[in-house]
Amino acid sequence: MSLAGAAPRRKQSPVITAEHDTSDALLRARPAALLAWYDRHRRTLPWRAPPGATADPYAVWLSEIMLQQTTVRAVGPYFDKFMARWPTVTALGEASLDDVLKMWAGLGYYSRARNLHACAVAVTRQHGGRFPDTEEGLRALPGVGPYTAAAIAAIAFSRRTMPVDGNIERVVSRLYAVEDELPKAKPRIKALAETLLGPSRAGDSAQALMDLGATICTPKKPACALCPLMQGCTARLRGDAESFPRKAPKKTGTLRRGAAFVVIRGDQVLVRSRPAKGLLGGMTEVPNSDWLPDQDEAAAKAQAPALKGVSRWHRKAGVVSHVFTHFPLELAVYVAHAAAGTRAPTGMRWTQISTLSDEALPNLMRKVIAHGLGD
DNA sequence: AAGTCGTGGGC
DNA sequence: TGCCCAAGACT
């Protein structure tokens, strides 16, 4: 690792030291330095083509959608499952939305799955099974925003554009000590990030910055000594790299409470589907009450489904706690047993407990059912 | 334009 | 433990 700290201090401008060299020469050298680092330290990931090879646009798109606000670790098995079952965008475009939701269950942000399916349908039916190869064309697809469009254009189609994700925001905001808070600083960070593009290999430049952000320029305790861009990194020189990017403190949502009802009929449990849009849109759930701040247990329990031929409700000890992005939730769980032949109320259905793993069950509902079935 | 939208892991 | 964070998009 060449740290390049041996360059002599400049005598003409005492403020600018070799370690804080922001000369034109250094700035021009950054894209190549970044790519050189990438060639040695790039992560091997399932959706990445081997060095020098062209990436499959479908794999790039699928991975980019899954990786939105989601860790590489969490995405790995889902990406493999999707690629095995639907190897092409056309195959995915011919699948049912329900099958896609089932496969996505557990990964979170379910609007992504709905948009994923809509996008595959659009590419299949309106684009002849081929992804648009321009940023503008990609941006028009469902679920493809400014970041994802730029990422696919650069990585899969070698377009000279720089996607800006959370990693790149962090790296660039430190490099230039951008004081403006996010999201106000986004346009400036985008412009600064583009200065790291060289004449070619835009996709590798972007992935290099992402890998850098994920492994070196981390949110906490960045390993600046190992960074190929350490020279002239303003935040590092100031010694407060960790304080970037600046962002307004986020408020935590208020706790909401409710009740969930696990009705067991032999080896089956009563479920229904949530409305297509909104929280957990289109996913499967057991009947449950409203989720409201300061809702007392009696009010929640009063929302139990009306069923004939069902035992009394038994409240399981404790609660199921879950944390959504914008509020925490506590659900009391009630269990009842239904006689064989008991009809499911309108809009509900019985499903085999043994095949729940195949349902489009969000993890919250997996926790609820496990709590209800447990001792 | 600020709020909505999951989940798991790290410290 | 509680809080922050992760390859953002949509409204």
TrEMBL record:
SUPFAM superfamilies registered for this protein in UniProt: DNA-glycosylase, Nudix
GO MF annotations in UniProt: 4 iron, 4 sulfur cluster binding; 8-oxo-7,8-dihydroguanine DNA N-glycosylase activity; adenine/guanine mispair binding; metal ion binding; oxidized purine DNA binding; purine-specific mismatch base pair DNA N-glycosylase activity
A single BP term in Gene Ontology: base-excision repair
TM stretches of this protein: none
Positions of the HhH-GPD domain: 66-215
Top-level lineage group: Bacteria
Keywords, alphabetical: 4Fe-4S, DNA damage, DNA repair, Glycosidase, Hydrolase, Iron, Iron-sulfur, Metal-binding
Cofactor binding description: Binds 1 [4Fe-4S] cluster.
EC number annotated for this UniProt entry: 3.2.2.31
Coiled coil regions in record: none
NCBIfam families according to UniProt: mutY
Family affiliation: Belongs to the Nth/MutY family.
Protein name (record): Adenine DNA glycosylase
Species of provenance: Rhodopseudomonas palustris (strain ATCC BAA-98 / CGA009)
Gene name for this UniProt entry: mutY
